[in-house]
């Protein structure tokens, strides 16, 4: 076994001392591998002996105060329409606790937190009436707080101190702050009214009724920037998106009007399909007063599938943070933690926050070591869905799902913008202190229906009777400021008139607008890459590596520190890897993968592989991370033994598909110099993430000009595992591609939206992984990966197939055929079936009669390479396609027209299908039936051959 100095291990080794049993609520690996950053730990001073004694003496008062903290939200005035059915909350009545004398004074020391943290100045007596008044102002007002469910005493104390110590003077906004709120609200209202006037048939999903969202976000951006945050990633749905774009994110209204009138939002030379107006994006840089540096804001493109963008925002945030960490570490700065300079903001609708499971998946990732971003601020724009809450959720609040991670929730009445700003301020302070997620439930309403052409009174007549009789939020706030002499009526009218005039001028300018000014294609970290549809795109780069480098990486991949105790059964894994490096033969899939990872790392690239149990590998094949059997300390040998800037992050994930794949896709959007891989436990498990594949991976380049180098590893192969563990549903992936049907030898390589491959050797897999980063553009790669082939000796590759001068080959000819003229049948296929057929051919003595041609790349279909191989078999009587998947599945429907196009060029008859018949499942669960079907498939390759 290869070793390095013990001190190297100590740099990454975990503490060997375990927490006390009473606090060890969940088992953890002591994983200090790359990507892990130990979170900050916070405590507040405990109660002093005097305070503890007072809490005992005044136990009834303590129970009453805690009840106000716990149940006050149930009586708070947070509904702007006052339609919530609020029952009398018995827990808020002091007489329940024997407190029936309003004038009686009680010592509040250690019970009501009206002093700075840690201060104990001795007894302080308040009458019960004052205690009740003070706490009801805090907990039963227009902001409702839920934080007492937290298991953390520190977090509960933090909130109690934060909320109970402040006076009205602390909460009062300066006149200029109030004027800014008014201007933002007024502009938003004018914008919605302008669009309604000029484009009355437009579905714009306006913000009328929910205008407080904008000052809330403005306050959040300002607080974050002043606290040192330099970049905010935003994931949001359609509601109010146009208001945010033009109101805060400096998106030119002329560009919006240009798009509304039917023109493209992107330059025509890209050939993009574009998207609807409610999916537009912006990435401005803003300077807020009091901030040392400008703030970069990135509103990510989103599909119509609600909440799907949020894991993408999380992944992009994480990748941006770690790119920053590496940059800072090169400069000698090591103290930066997740959330210090990059923050994720997620906006939600009330119905989708409750109803879409990806919300739960994203929350579940929030505190995991390889997924945390240092806390997100969630703003739920609670507009009320067309379906009433009684039919839309089983919980009291739409935000209750967030309690699964004990996140605090602040409910706030959207009719009061200053209270909204106060709630946002508290939310950011919590997130910035604890680096955990927090929810702001902004309770507002929709003045119109789901869109402006909808009639909500069909199903909610009483609600909309009330809505249509009330003044707007901007108008109410404007009247208040005028009444309080903060704003004059003339100034208010001037703001509205000026903005209307500005919008009118932008509408005129729309006619001459040129798309491109609002795009950021191939800028920043993407600079130096090219558009994949351009002539400069290199689709087939050399991906081989010098053999000595490969051997160095191979040895490093099983190097462990001195004194590190690996599992006895893994000794064979280490021995086989080292022998393969020495002999240069018999490289298995895990070895080829490690060589691809390590060689890329030596070139400065990072690699991140994510999924369930990926460190070990679903089939116990990878072992890219090793666990000390005495301490459970974790090492990643490639990080430990390779002296390079590239790093390997092994992100063992939660049991999530949509959330985790979305996260990794977000990583791929941020960093073109990383190889981001999501591995499904079994290939068909991707269907739990189908929305991400449909609306992002397969279409983002066409819709939004967004490139991605994401890799999907989907274990595939019929081996008796039954209906669910057999197929990666490759037919679905192929159906999503825009791979051309026609064979055009004179054109540039087809700019397909995804590469879909089915490699049959470790060398091919090696080249595919390296090709992802050696190309001068990025493209998603879907790999129908191996299961049984992982350890099949016949599938091993020699080291020379990975060496300098080699590359991926989209079609593999039959190397066993020395004389093509003797071949009577050519069998084209994909996958592991090849090895079964070779074995059967030898058994039947038909080596010269039938040739097996493997189509390794299905999209883009390799027309020329296929023709080059098949042209060798001019004397063959027939060319067939054989697959083990049912006829309505697998690659057949994709291959048939394309293979026929090649055969037409060769003057040959059409390809003949052989294999399983149509079926509703990929494979049967009855072993005898599977065996009979598989025998029929094998026999079909050889029938009538002598």
What does this structure look like?
- The chain is of the alpha/beta class.
- 36% of the residues lie in helices and 12% in strands.
- The protein is built from 31 helices and 26 strands.
- The strands form six sheets. Strands 4-10-11-9-8-5-7-6 form an eight-stranded mixed beta sheet, sandwiched between helices.
- Helix 3 runs parallel beside helix 4 and helix 19 runs antiparallel to helix 20.
State the gist of this model.
The protein is α/β, with parallel strands linked by helices and 946 residues long. It contains 31 helices and 26 strands.
Characteristics of this structure?
seven-stranded mixed beta sheet; eight-stranded mixed beta sheet; 36% helix; single chain; alpha/beta; 946 residues; globular
Which helices and strands, and how do they pair?
Layout lengths: L2 E2 L1 H7 L36 H9 L1 H13 L33 E3 L17 E3 H12 L3 E4 L6 H12 L3 H4 L3 H24 L14 H14 L4 E5 L5 H7 L5 H8 L24 E2 L8 E5 L9 H22 L11 E8 H6 L1 H9 L10 E7 L6 H4 L16 E5 L3 H18 L3 E6 L17 H8 L4 H11 L5 H21 L37 H10 L3 E2 L9 H13 L5 H14 L3 E6 L14 E2 L6 E2 L1 H5 L6 E5 L5 H13 L3 E6 L10 H8 L2 H5 L6 E5 L14 H6 L19 E3 L4 H13 L6 E5 L25 E2 L12 E5 L3 H12 L5 E6 L1 E3 L3 H8 L7 E9 L5 H14 L6 E5 L10 H14 L6
Parallel strand pairs: 1-12, 5-7, 5-8, 8-9, 9-11, 10-11, 13-16, 13-17, 17-18, 18-20, 19-20, 22-23, 22-25, 25-26
Antiparallel strand pairs: 2-3, 4-10, 6-7, 14-15, 19-24, 21-23
Helix pairs in contact: 2-3, 3-4, 7-17, 7-18, 8-15, 10-18, 11-23, 19-20, 19-21, 21-27, 23-24, 29-30
């Amino acid at each position: 076994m290869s070793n390095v100095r013990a001190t190297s291990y100590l740099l990454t080794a975990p503490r060997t001392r375990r927490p006390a049993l009473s606090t060890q609520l969940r088992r953890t690996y002591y994983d200090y591998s790359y990507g892990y950053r130990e979170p900050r730990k916070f405590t507040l001073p405990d109660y002093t002996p005097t305070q503890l004694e007072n809490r005992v003496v005044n136990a009834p008062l303590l129970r009453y105060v805690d009840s106000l903290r716990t149940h006050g939200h149930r009586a708070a005035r947070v509904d702007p329409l006052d339609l919530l059915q609020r029952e009398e909350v018995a827990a808020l009545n002091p007489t329940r606790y024997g407190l029936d004398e309003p004038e009686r004074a009680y010592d509040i020391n250690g019970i009501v937190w009206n002093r700075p943290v840690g201060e104990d100045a001795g007894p302080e007596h308040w009458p019960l009436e004052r205690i009740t008044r003070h706490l009801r102002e805090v907990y039963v007002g227009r902001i409702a707080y839920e934080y007492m469910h937290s298991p953390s005493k520190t977090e509960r104390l933090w909130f109690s101190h934060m909320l109970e110590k402040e006076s009205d003077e602390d909460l009062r906004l300066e006149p200029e702050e109030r004027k800014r709120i008014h201007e933002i609200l007024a502009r938003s209202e004018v914008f919605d009214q302008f669009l309604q006037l000029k484009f009355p048939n437009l579905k714009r999903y306006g913000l009328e009724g929910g205008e407080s969202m904008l000052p809330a976000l403005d306050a959040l951006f300002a607080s974050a920037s002043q606290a040192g945050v330099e970049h905010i990633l935003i994931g949001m749905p359609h509601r109010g998106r146009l208001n945010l774009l033009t109101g805060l994110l400096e998106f030119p209204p002329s560009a919006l009007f240009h798009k509304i009138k039917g023109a493209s939002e992107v330059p025509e030379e890209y050939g993009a399909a574009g998207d609807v107006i409610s999916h537009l994006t912006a990435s401005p840089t803003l300077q807020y007063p009091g901030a040392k540096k400008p703030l970069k804001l990135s509103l990510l493109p989103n599909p119509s599938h609600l909440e799907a963008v949020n894991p993408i925002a999380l992944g992009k945030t994480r990748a941006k943070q770690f790119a920053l960490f590496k940059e800072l570490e090169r400069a000698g700065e090591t103290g930066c933690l997740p959330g210090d300079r990059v923050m994720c903001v997620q906006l939600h609708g009330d119905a989708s926050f409750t109803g879409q499971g990806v919300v739960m998946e994203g929350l579940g990732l929030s505190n995991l070591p390889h997924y945390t971003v240092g806390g997100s601020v969630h703003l739920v724009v609670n507009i009320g869905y067309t379906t009433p809450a009684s039919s839309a959720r089983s919980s009291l609040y739409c935000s209750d799902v967030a309690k699964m991670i004990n996140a605090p929730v602040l409910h706030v009445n959207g009719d009061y913008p200053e209270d909204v700003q106060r709630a946002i301020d508290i939310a950011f302070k919590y997130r910035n202190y604890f680096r955990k997620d927090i929810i702001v439930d902004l309770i507002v309403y929709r003045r119109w229906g789901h869109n402006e052409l909808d009639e909500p009174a069909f199903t909610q007549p009483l609600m909309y009777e009330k809505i249509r009789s009330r003044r707007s939020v901007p108008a109410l706030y404007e009247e208040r400021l005028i009444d309080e002499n903060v704003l004059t009526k003339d100034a208010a009218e001037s703001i509205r008139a000026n903005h209307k005039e500005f919008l009118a001028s932008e509408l005129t300018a729309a006619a001459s607008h040129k798309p491109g000014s609002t795009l950021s294609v191939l800028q920043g970290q993407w600079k130096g890459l090219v558009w994949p549809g351009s002539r400069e795109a290199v689709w087939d780069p050399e991906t081989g590596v010098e053999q000595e480098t490969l051997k160095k990486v191979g040895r490093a991949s099983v190097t462990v520190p001195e004194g590190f105790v690996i599992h006895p059964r893994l000794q064979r894994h280490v021995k086989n890897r080292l022998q393969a490096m020495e002999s240069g033969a018999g490289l298995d899939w895990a070895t080829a993968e490690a060589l691809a990872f390590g060689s890329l790392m030596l070139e400065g690239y990072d690699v991140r592989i994510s999924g369930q149990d990926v460190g070990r590998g679903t089939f116990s094949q990878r072992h890219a991370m090793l666990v000390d059997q005495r301490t459970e300390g974790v090492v990643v040998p490639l990080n430990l033994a390779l002296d390079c800037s590239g790093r390997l992050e092994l992100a063992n994930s939660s049991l999530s598909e949509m959330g985790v794949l979305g996260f990794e896709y977000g990583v791929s959007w941020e960093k073109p110099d990383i190889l981001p891989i999501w591995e499904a436990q079994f290939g068909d498990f991707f269907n739990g993430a189908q929305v991400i594949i449909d609306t992002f991976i397969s279409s983002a380049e066409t819709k939004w000009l967004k490139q991605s180098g994401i890799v999907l590893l989907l274990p595939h192969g019929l081996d008796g595992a039954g209906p669910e563990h057999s197929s990666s549903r490759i037919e679905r992936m192929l159906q999503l591609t825009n791979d051309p049907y026609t064979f055009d030898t004179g054109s540039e390589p087809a700019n397909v939206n995804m590469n879909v491959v089915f490699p049959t050797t470790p060398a091919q897999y090696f080249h595919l992984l390296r090709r992802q980063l050696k190309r001068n553009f990025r493209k998603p790669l879907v790999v129908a990966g191996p299961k049984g082939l992982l350890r099949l000796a016949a599938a091993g590759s020699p080291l020379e197939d990975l060496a300098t001068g080699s590359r991926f080959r989209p079609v593999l000819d039959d190397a066993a055929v020395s004389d093509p003229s003797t071949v009577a049948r050519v069998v084209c296929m994909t996958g592991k079936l090849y090895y079964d057929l070779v074995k059967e051919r030898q058994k039947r003595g038909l080596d010269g009669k039938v040739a097996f041609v493997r189509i390794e790349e299905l999209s883009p279909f390799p027309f020329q390479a296929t023709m080059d191989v098949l042209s060798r078999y001019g004397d063959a009587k027939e060319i067939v396609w054989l697959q083990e998947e049912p006829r309505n599945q697998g690659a057949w429907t994709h291959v048939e027209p394309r293979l026929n196009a090649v055969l037409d060029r060769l003057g040959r008859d059409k390809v003949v299908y052989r294999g399983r018949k149509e079926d509703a499942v990929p494979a049967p669960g009855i072993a005898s039936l599977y065996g009979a079907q598989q025998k029929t498939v094998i026999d079909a390759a050889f029938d009538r051959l002598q």
